[in-house]
Hints:
Layout: H1 2-24, H2 26-40, H3 52-84, H4 88-111, H5 118-146, E1 149-150, H6 153-172, H7 187-211, H8 220-226, H9 238-270, H10 274-298, H11 302-331, H12 343-357, E2 362-363, H13 365-383
Antiparallel strand pairs: 1-2
Amino acid sequence: MLAPMSAKRKSDADAKSFPSIMRAEFPLLIVVGTLAIFFSTGNRLVGDISHPLLLVIILFWLFATILWSAISVVRHADCLAIKFGEPYGTLILTLSAIAIEVMMISSAMLHGANNPTLARDAMFAVVMIALGGLVGLSLLLGGLRYREQYYNLEGVNSYLNVIMALAVLGLVLPNFTTSTTGPTFSTEQAIFLAVMSLSLYAIFLLIQTVRHRQYFMESQDVAIKSASAHHQVQIHSTPYHAAMLVTYLIAVVFLAEKFAIPLDNSIEHFGMPQAFGGVIIAALVLAPEGLGAIHATLNNQLQRSVNILLGSVLATIGLTIPAVLTISLMTKRPIALGVQGGNLPLLMLTLAVSVVTFTSRKTNVLQGCIHLLLFAVFLLLIFSP
């Protein structure tokens, strides 16, 4: 009697589990259907500019599908974060999103027309969206809900130290070197920066995950208060969540490749600045991390939010710069890294404000408003440089 009853219980659990999985992964059906439609038609559908209304519809269709995929990435990354604990959970999400960025920029550099400022514009957009828009929104929403939020000062300082060093070396120093003309590096300088960036990022990961892991974890009282939010998440096996996370990430890469075509056509048709396209792509790349950071802030997990956002900026500079420099050296394509014009003082100001914001163990709405102001200036300079 006991064996049949156990078998019956197991089959009932499987029956309940399968429909719930199907409901949870319904976005994957939409994503697969969208990919099938646009890849079966080649570039005919996304490249049609004869009907502006159809162009706008396709643009929003792809944008919504990519955003839905990004939400699914966050959901599975959250489940892995619960299973592995911090800071491994946020590290998984950060590295997944940066993998998208590196693949998109690398694909454009290898297969598209030579655009020496593409990588720089994308990386600068990621820095400003993360440190300006997303940090500001997270601090503002967290301050409105909880008045003040707390984090580990040691962990934030570790992030900012490495971010400031690599950002200045990679995005500012090229403007002042004399070995080459323009905001570029010589071969020796490029090799040195690529090796040093990877080495410094590897050391940081060692600090984050092994030697000083406590710097990047929530305080005990905050962890207890926010633990109830985890009970509402349906957690399956680790291979399941890992496989689904990779699947949605791959879908984002392919959808973003198709999305770039109607985006470029829309920018040309409606007379928008070229830099605006890079901002949209950067926003899609950051969507998984941004959604995860805002969700963590609303659950009073500011440390997790900081880990995600500052981790994304650090990974962008520490991993994307070596990748694009390597591609530039191998393909002999020139690449401009130095941020110029009004964006240069804006970058320096954003780094300085970030240091001032995280000089204590708590934040409020004022810091959020200041970061949002810097993000607004970033958007202003796109349309009115």
